[in-house]
Amino acid sequence: MRYFTSMKIKRSLFIEKIKIKKTLFMKSIDYKFTLINVFPQPCPQS
Fold first, then answer.
1. Banded pLDDT at 41 (limits 50, 70, 90)
2. According to the lineage, what is the superkingdom (predicted)?
3. Where are the domains of the chain?
C-alpha cells in the first residue's frame, strides 16, 4: 500500500509540475507577443 501511495503522490506532483510549466510557457508567449506588438521590429527573430 505504501508503494501505491508514493506513486500517487509522485504522479500528482508530476501533473502539477506540467501544469506550472504550461502556464509559465503560455505566460512567456503572451509576454513575447505583447513585446512584439508594443515594439514592432523590422525582422522579428523566431
1. low
2. Bacteria
3. 1-36
